[in-house]
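hiii so my PI (J.) wants the whole complex modelled not just the main chain, which honestly fair. so below is everything: two entries, each one labled with what it is. i double checked the lines twice but i was tired so who knows lol
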Amino acid sequence: MLTRITGGEIIDPANGRAGIGDVWIEDEKIVDPPQSGQADRVFDASGCILMAGAIDIHSHIGGGNVNTARLLLPEQHKAHLPRPDATPLSNAGWSTFQTGCLYAKMGFTTVIEPAMPPGSALHTHLELADIPIIDKGALAILGNDDFLLSMIRDNASSQAIDDYVTWTVASSRALGVKVINAGGSMAFRENVRTFSFDDVVPSYGITSRQIVKTLQASVNRLGIPHPLHVHCNNLGVPGAPDTAAETMSAAEGLPLHLAHLQFYGYAKEGKRDFASAAAQLAHVVNTTPEVTIDVGQVMFGQTVTISSDEMRQFFARVSASPRKSVIYDWDGNGGGIVPYRYRPDYYGAVQWAIGLELFLLIDDPWRVFFTTDHPNGAPFTAYPELFELLMSRDRRAEVIAELPRSAMKHSTLPTLAREYTFEEIAIMTRAAPARLLGFADRGHLGAGALADVAVYRRDASIAKMLGSAALVFKNGDLVVKDGEITHYRWGKALRVNPPVEATMKRRLDEYHQSRYGLSLDWFDFPDSAIHREQPFGEVPCRT
Amino acid sequence: MAVAWIGNREASLEQAVEQAASLLKASRCPVFTLDTDIHGTRAAIALAEQVGGAYDVAGGEVMARETALYTDKGGIFADASETRRRADVIVVVGSLPDYAWPLIAELAETVPDLSPSNIRRFFVIGDVDNLPPNSGTATNLSCGSSGLGATLAALRAKFAKRKTAAPVENFDQFAAALAESRFPVFLFSGKGCDLLEMEMLQGLVSDLNLKSRASALHLPASESGWGSMFASGWMTGFPPRTGFGSGHPEYDRWRFDVARMIEAGEADVHVWVAGRPDAPAPSHAGPSLIALAKTPEAVPGAAVTIAVGTPGIDHDAVVFTYRTGTFRTVDATEPSEAPAAASILRSIAEVITPGVPLPC
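here's the output for the full assembly
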């Protein structure tokens, strides 16, 4: 079928296209205008903006920790309102079904779950497969696992490390690799209560830095498109800016992605030992071109923090609101689920400001990514409001006026006049994520791209405009019309698939037999286990 | 061989599916009881939404209190892998599910490889008979005949250096073991603990973590039930005992207690999904029973019986396993023509709303 979307303002920075024009779709792909000029169906997009479908690089949308958060907080589902109700289970609060619907309504068509424990990859993929409409992907967690830490301690060869990373990524159907407080969970199991970048993991004699550098180098050698995705040590701790800066400086010319940088922006200054260090961090990012970051913006309200940084979550229990939490001493990273309410008090206001400062002080929209670290900083349903804050200094001023002045004294935010343009929004949420994740087929509107297209009707309210798309096409299929879901379709989980080396597989089988009393089969699964047609799509590694 | 029955009469599969769909369409309050694999659970929940039903798992009372530990309080939990590799002290709290006995034996036969300790010591709170045979020696901790909850409370008090009404037998030995321990793990289940006892145990674990590390391994009373709990969580946001009668999912552990709904006469159709051949069939006189069961004959009293396969025996399956604390695939050990419950449930849904497939 040939589809023409006509008369809209096209914003496609990856192809340098900006202005009124047409987008043509043939079946699942975007095509050049056909010579005939005849379409099977035409959509009038006059008064609208057209962008590629948005890509969220860091949103906790599925897996054991997310599901435990649901279990822990049945009373919190209202945090994810409003609920569409035209399609099965889409009105189930904070369900996988609702997740897909709400993302699609905002014009997001690909979302990455950034923390998949390899040992429970099947669980993660079962959940992702029940998220309708959008494509997904997941990053496999390494860096608190005995096998890797032992190899580093024993000076294993780069080849052996690469073989292990390859097996992990391939067997868990991951899109890339994430490290979370490298070595921190292993240290916490031995009752270590603080852990920084150059601290030593007990029993292994290796530092967090060594773990990060080992994984960064391996991911790069293997040609996995997405750089190592790093959740630094000392998240949320006053003084963490130094840790984040040290980690960025350790990139040493190779690509490195730092997740939710806002949570490391707390300077130990002022009478409360809590002030914004966003300007310092933004300077480091601006002067370290091999580094990319996502923000993890805080928005006010109730949420729940979900993290595989077990040590951090253990200490966050005391601030749980409501007063309940789950801490997992699971094999590998473990994790924790701690509900939290961001209040517009001094501390909440500083956190809110830091995120916005990072967005506004980091010069290059290709290296700063739009996230709330859903749901850690805020549910992703807060995105429309966040877009408005980035694009309107007047809106920022309105919110600032309601916040404690003492907090704003410790932030540069009130002085920042920058307003994001639609082109910068398109870079940050479309073109740049595609480049960062190695997607050639999306994030742009050029011929040959998947026809993931979001059409927004212009409105004085940016939040209204970007929160409810007029039209959304996924693979050329119209799935949202006038802000409502029309029907389900089932996307894929995107993965890399490097070839696994047989010797490593044998070695891992022996390891699992001796250490867990289980064969390696317990930790792998066939694609057919997912019960969806073609549940996975492959993203090629660099050659 | 017959695979479907309407009442006691043999029927074709299509006829049985039609009859089941007819009963569900006419029902004002259908309820579902689940004892199946993950895909059977997914299809059942999706069908429950379609017909406005409520669902629970088999043995729902025990699992309701296990889920209540999470919904009401939370806690600190280890998995079996970390327990095997790191726990140098094991404390068995109350009776555990029979399926966990091989783990206890395995823990007795091995030592932790991720701990500087090269021994593993065992203690029991409750009845020593809760330990399986050949699981090694264990030291009993008890406050006489005061029961599990009182012993746990006394242990908390003793560690907090408060007075207790009764002494805890072998406390000094236990305190000395914990002082040396790097990672003690308490094993418990809703099978052997009520909610207050589980909360008291988590209080003790939390207290111990103020200065050192400790954790708790939850061994759910039913593995299939716990797997269904996970699927229910991601599909609806809630654990089982969720109902769709109002058009959207509502979780209420009393209102949607399926056994209570049947007994109180609220339910008019009961869909029983059980793949295990030894699953006890419901014996109620109230609602019309649609039985999807591993059976060679009509289930007594059922309005409709459809024979389904056993997950992992007749067909490949995805199941929850306590051993890794997550899902695994199980290949069919005796592949047969017996259909998976999920496929029957989808067929019923297709009859109820033709052309609108279930989302699972």
